[in-house]
Amino acid sequence: MTEEIFRDNAYAKTCEATVTQVNEFGIQLDRTVFYAAGGGQPGDTGVLRSANGAEVVIADTIHEMGTGVHLHVPAEGAPTLTVGEAVTAEIDWDRRYAHMRMHSGLHLLCAVIEGGVTGGSIGAEKSRLDFDLPDTGLDKEQITADLNRLVDGDHAMSMRWITDDELAANPDMVRTMSVKPPMGSGRVRLIDITDVDLQPCGGTHVGRTGEIGKLRVGKIENKGRHNRRINIHIDE
User: Fold this and answer.
1) CATH of domain 3-91
2) What's the CATH number of domain 96-234, 3.30.70.100, 3.60.20.10, 1.10.287.1770, 3.30.980.10?
3) Where are the beta strands (DSSP E) in the chain?
């Protein structure tokens, strides 16, 4: 398995690592700061730099299904690395930080909307959540005001772990209806926004809600009888 440095430190931009596998899908490292796509959050991009000066541009990061391994997908025409080679892994920090702010903003959206989450997507410029709601009269301005009240509150955001059994005993922590948090390893990661929200999540987040910046609710879409899609933007 790949050591996931970003799980405990989302602000880590680089790390030293060793190539452990190279296959047709990508490059495996023994440890990484690159987040692999999952939970609606895109995989990180960046570069792997070898000791001999080669630079491998990474166009995506993915999971090798069911293995706990992360594969760093090289851009077309990138140099080839070999097993055992030492590299410095460096993420595209501006892109990652935008995803951290957006992902944290979606957790705030969960806190102000009462309803199960049926889907979601995170982008650097626009993100969205789909909610199981019959209400077609959602107030865009009120939701925006509620979100920015939580941003301005500058609530601490922290990560902690609970056991599979603890999560099973508290099913209301899980807001997503279609995708359940990964279980089976014995523990589940929680993101805790002090006095605001607590739910399982494996993504990367900012340390305080004030880092998110001013949020703006965009289009609210009717995607079915009980499915309301709320788009959010960071209003720079």
Assistant:
1) 2.40.30.130
2) 3.30.980.10
3) 3-4, 14-22, 27-29, 31-32, 46-50, 55-64, 69-74, 86-91, 117-121, 127-132, 157-163, 187-193, 197-200, 215-222, 227-234
